[in-house]
Amino acid sequence: MNDSRLRRPSAVRTLRVGEMKVSYVPDGAMLLKPAGSLPAAVDRHWSRYGAYLNDTRRLVANTGGLLVEHGTRALLIDAGFGPRAVPEDPDHPDRGAVHGGSLPGNLALLGRSPKDIETVAFTHLHPDHIGWLATPDGRQWFPGATVVLAEADWEYFVDERGGEMDDHIHVALLDLHARGRVELLSAERTLAPHMTALPAPGHTPGHTIFAVHDGSERAVLLGDALYCPQQLGHSDWEAVSDVDPLLAARTRVMLERDLEEHDALAVGAHFPGLRAGRVLRR
């Protein structure tokens, strides 16, 4: 295995699921402090996972979105960190430097512009997944899109302001909702032919995953339900950003069993190299 790909952000990648085309649209990357990101993974475990750490002992994680296309239709799952960069804060428990800004250019490389996107669906409302919904000057980036997210995340992040969210994103969501362009999910929902939204709570109250399926072929877009590859086989290793760690652990166990049983491809939003893979139990 080429270990170097485990320590760098992914380029544009595309996979086929029957007639469906799923492409990763990079926006940037964030560096994670391993001991803070996965507090249950004590130091002795990092000798096993050392190939994932860069030369500053940080985990390298992608930020971006997933473009799902079927014919002329285009749907985007998550929208990266947005046009900004944040330096590492030594006092922050888990996050190092973060930068975004590449999503529009990479969307163009895939032959799409923001006006082509009919739906922007969010796995959840953490800042590294919603950054291109609106720019800091208030411009809404996807002019014709309907925004889809879980009702429980709306209540937690938008109504209660219980989680981190930039003011300009909050204003944009309220404006879109007032104009009837926000669809709130409370259960499993078919969003488009061959595309299903599935509740996977714990990382956030309404965290959602998306299954792309065509005939016997299936890929599951995991968002942060599996935050990083090290959690595979370690369902008790919560991410420090999990809102409900116990529920998130139960969701991880359920997902691993489901992925193995159905032999489905899985794509983790922050996995290095962003290659689709299958879960195989030893």
CATH topology: Metallo-beta-lactamase, Chain A
Strand portion:
25-35%
Query: How many structural domains does the protein architecture include?
Result: 1
Classified in CATH, the superfamily is Ribonuclease Z/Hydroxyacylglutathione hydrolase-like
**What's the end-to-end separation, in Å?**
19 Å
Mean pLDDT rating: 90
What is the strand tally?
Answer: 14
- Give the structural class: alpha/beta
Tally the helices: what do you get? 5
Question: Class in CATH?
Answer: Alpha Beta
- Helix proportion of residues, in percent? 10-25%
The description of the largest β-sheet is: 9 strands, mixed
Q: What string, H for helix and E for strand, traces the elements in order?
A: EEHEEEEHEEHHEEEEEHE
What is the name of the CATH architecture? 4-Layer Sandwich
Radius of gyration: 18 Å
